[in-house]
């Protein structure tokens, strides 16, 4: 069993004023007032943590970076290792969002150690979860698969729906990326159901994105687009800038798989702009890959496409995204194996050149 979702990153008085579904503009305003009125170093640490998380979710990278460091300094002044762990968790999560994955792992590993020593079970669990997610994003599934399962069991043991949704979605994503679509769909749908029952709107938005991804791979384009529209509405209501950009990128993926290459190109362009504005290099690179593939389908010069793929492979290698790099290599192989086109590029909605053997950007 599990209860309603809650947000342990909002601590002290903020925990009573804010909930898991509070919009991030509301979180930022409330936490900023608390930070200005804080009477102790621990109060300042807690307020700055919420400021950091709100800015991060809103895509304001510089402000988030300043705030989590302020939270850590205040927690250190207060001599509270648990609060220090929460600040490092926020900083590690921001580093992962910004594509600096080695830094993310260092900060999160330090957070794990501090949380373990402090006895703060939730901080320890969140830091471990951050490490697991970082490894999953890098494609290091062997290293983090067991950790995901352990975290899921911890969530079930303590009735923490939000943690269950996170862990289940991560496991589902690994199944999806390794080709076990049936298992991935089962887990994504279960995580979406749990999120809905626990009133975890953010978790539901991310889970619906996963469901839509798998459905579109299986050819259910209309259902996928409907679910993405539902998730987009949640993202806009909660001011989830990063989640909204990833939603748009997934919508572009769905268009691409359906052979609707003009729509895919336009939507990848939208996602690229959103990721660029929030300085999120992982999303930028993935959107660029989608654009390369869409333009190639629409008749772009093959040598130009290959040159951009080479640049993207270097970027993915630098960031440490193994799965994305494999997608670049697969699409390059497809382009080089295919003879130069002699027919006009397909119209939006056409499927004549679709290659189901090479899925769109994940």
TrEMBL record:
Residues 349-362 have a biased composition (Polar residues). Residues 338-362 are annotated as: Disordered. Pfam families: TPR_12 (PF13424). Keywords: Cytoplasm, Repeat, TPR repeat. The keyword Cytoplasm applies. It is found in: Cytoplasm. It comes from the Bacteria. TPR repeats lie at residues 165-198. GO terms for cellular component: cytoplasm. PANTHER family: TETRATRICOPEPTIDE REPEAT PROTEIN 29. Belongs to the Rap family. This is Tetratricopeptide repeat protein. It comes from Streptomyces auratus AGR0001.
């Amino acid at each position: 069993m599990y209860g309603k979702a809650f947000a342990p990153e909002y601590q002290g008085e903020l925990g009573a004023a804010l909930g898991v579904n509070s919009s991030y503009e509301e979180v930022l305003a409330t936490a900023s007032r608390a930070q200005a009125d804080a009477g102790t170093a621990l109060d300042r640490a807690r307020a700055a943590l919420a400021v950091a998380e709100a800015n991060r979710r809103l895509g304001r990278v510089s402000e988030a970076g300043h705030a989590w460091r302020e939270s850590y300094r205040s927690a250190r002044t207060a001599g509270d290792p648990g609060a220090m762990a929460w600040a490092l968790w926020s900083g590690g999560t921001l580093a992962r969002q910004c594509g600096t994955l080695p830094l993310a792992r260092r900060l999160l590993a330090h957070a794990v150690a501090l949380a373990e020593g402090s006895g703060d079970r939730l901080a320890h669990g969140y830091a471990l979860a951050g490490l697991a997610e970082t490894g999953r994003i890098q494609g290091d599934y062997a290293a983090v698969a067991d950790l995901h399962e352990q975290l899921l069991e911890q969530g079930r043991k303590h009735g923490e729906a939000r943690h269950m949704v996170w862990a289940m979605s991560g496991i589902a994503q690994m199944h999806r990326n390794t080709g076990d679509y049936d298992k991935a769909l089962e887990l994504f749908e279960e995580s979406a159901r749990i999120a809905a029952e626990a009133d975890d709107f953010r978790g539901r938005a991310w889970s619906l994105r996963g469901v839509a991804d798998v459905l579109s791979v299986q050819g259910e384009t209309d259902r996928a687009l409907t679910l993405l529209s539902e998730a987009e509405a949640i993202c806009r209501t909660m001011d989830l800038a990063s989640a909204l950009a990833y939603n748009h990128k997934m919508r572009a993926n769905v268009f691409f798989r359906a052979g609707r290459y003009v729509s895919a190109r336009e939507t990848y362009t939208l996602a690229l702009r959103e990721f660029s504005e929030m300085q999120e290099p992982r999303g930028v690179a993935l959107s660029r890959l989608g654009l390369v593939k869409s333009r190639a389908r629409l008749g772009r010069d093959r040598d130009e496409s290959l040159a951009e793929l080479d640049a993207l492979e270097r970027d993915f290698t630098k960031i440490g995204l193994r799965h994305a790099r494999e997608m670049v290599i697969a699409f390059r192989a497809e382009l080089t194996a295919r003879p130069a086109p002699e027919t006009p590029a397909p119209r939006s909605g056409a499927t004549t050149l679709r290659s189901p053997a090479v899925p769109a950007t994940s």
